[in-house]
């Protein structure tokens, strides 16, 4: 090998379209994410960010286009099979099991369904669960102090982190996060940003971060895309996005003042 062959993107999306009846939420969007990057997707309320994550992770069938993951066409693959390939996600509204502790919430998320595991459970019902990925996720999300607490006993910020931890406990190759910082205060958001930043280099996990907190995404991402009414109006580095006139007009308001922040319409 010469080493000159361009690296295949980990996620390669072509002309992705998501429509709900007559409402086109994602309009023929192309995007590719390289292994080892933190990629950001921003856009105002209703821009199509969650619809895009849903289509990429198999929670919503696309009406057009293709999704490739690690060179494999996963456009019509069921969500659980994508998860098994190493695609994990978080949800915009925190979905935790209220009657399980934080530790148990992570443990159930880490157990990948599969024939071999099912057989092992059948023949070795008393086997100890494999805690490797759970302990790693607890460490990355700094949840060590609350592992024995129930979701109702911890702060909103910590619950959001448990949501992130549940996705990480699957030890994914790519994690897609739907507004993980919504409702966090500035310090919590900063701390989360630093954790996300460390995921590719220190832990080999590529990140696809959705948020409408412009400052977080600009600070944390290598590259980002801006969606507006389902259309990708800009893609580039944080510096390029900051200067893009279409972004300034559509997203920052005519005077360059941010109009959408973490507080708005987070749904969580
Ligand atoms: N299940 C659905 N049925 C019909 N329309 C939907 C559905 N889900 C989303 N939409 C519409 O699709 C568009 C995109 O919504 P989506 O939730 O993907 O945006 P978003 O960028 O995630 O917004 P937010 O920042 O508020 O989370 C909106 O017009 C929304 O009303
Ligand atoms: Mg959304």
Shape: globular
The CATH homologous superfamily name of the domain at 11-95 and 172-252 equals P-loop containing nucleotide triphosphate hydrolases
Order the strands across the largest sheet as they lie in space.
6-7-8-3-9-10
Please report the first level of CATH classification, the CATH class of the domain at 11-95 and 172-252: Alpha Beta
Helix segment tally: 10
Distance between the termini: 48 Å
Relative strand content: 15-25%
Largest sheet: number of strands, sense, barrel closure: 6 strands, mixed
CATH architecture of the domain at 11-95 and 172-252: 3-Layer(aba) Sandwich
- Average pLDDT rating: 87
Sequence stretches where pLDDT stays below 50 over 5 or more residues: 254-268
- Gyration radius over CA: 19 Å
Structural class of the secondary elements? alpha/beta
Helix content: 25-40%
> Ligands in the structure?
adenosine-5'-triphosphate, magnesium ion
H/E element order: EEEHEEHEHHHHEHEHEEHH
CATH domain topology of the domain at 11-95 and 172-252: Rossmann fold
């Amino acid at each position: 090998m010469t080493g000159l062959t361009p690296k295949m993107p980990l996620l390669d999306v072509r002309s992705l379209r998501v429509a709900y009846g007559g409402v086109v939420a994602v309009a023929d969007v192309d995007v590719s994410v390289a292994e080892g990057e933190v990629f950001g997707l921003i856009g105002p309320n209703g821009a199509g960010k969650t619809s895009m994550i849903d289509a990429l992770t198999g929670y919503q069938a696309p009406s057009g286009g293709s999704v490739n993951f690690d060179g494999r066409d996963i456009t019509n693959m069921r969500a659980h099979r994508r998860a098994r390939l190493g695609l994990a996600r978080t949800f915009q509204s925190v979905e935790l099991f209220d009657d399980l502790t934080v530790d148990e919430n992570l443990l159930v998320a880490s157990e990948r369904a599969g024939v071999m595991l099912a057989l092992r459970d059948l023949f070795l019902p008393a086997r100890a669960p494999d805690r490797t990925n759970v302990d790693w996720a607890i460490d990355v999300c700094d949840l060590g102090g609350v592992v024995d607490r129930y979701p109702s006993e911890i702060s909103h910020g910590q619950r959001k982190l448990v949501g992130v931890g549940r996705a990480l406990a699957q030890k994914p190759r790519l994690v897609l996060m739907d507004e993980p910082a919504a409702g966090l205060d500035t310090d919590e958001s900063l701390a989360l940003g630093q954790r996300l930043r460390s995921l590719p280099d220190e832990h080999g996990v590529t990140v696809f971060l959705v948020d409408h907190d412009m400052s977080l995404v600009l600070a944390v991402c290598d590259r980002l895309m801006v969606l507006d009414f389902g259309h990708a109006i800009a893609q580039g580095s944080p510096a390029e996005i900051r200067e893009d006139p279409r972004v300034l007009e559509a997203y920052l308001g005519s005077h360059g003042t941010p109009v959408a922040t973490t507080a708005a319409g987070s749904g969580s």
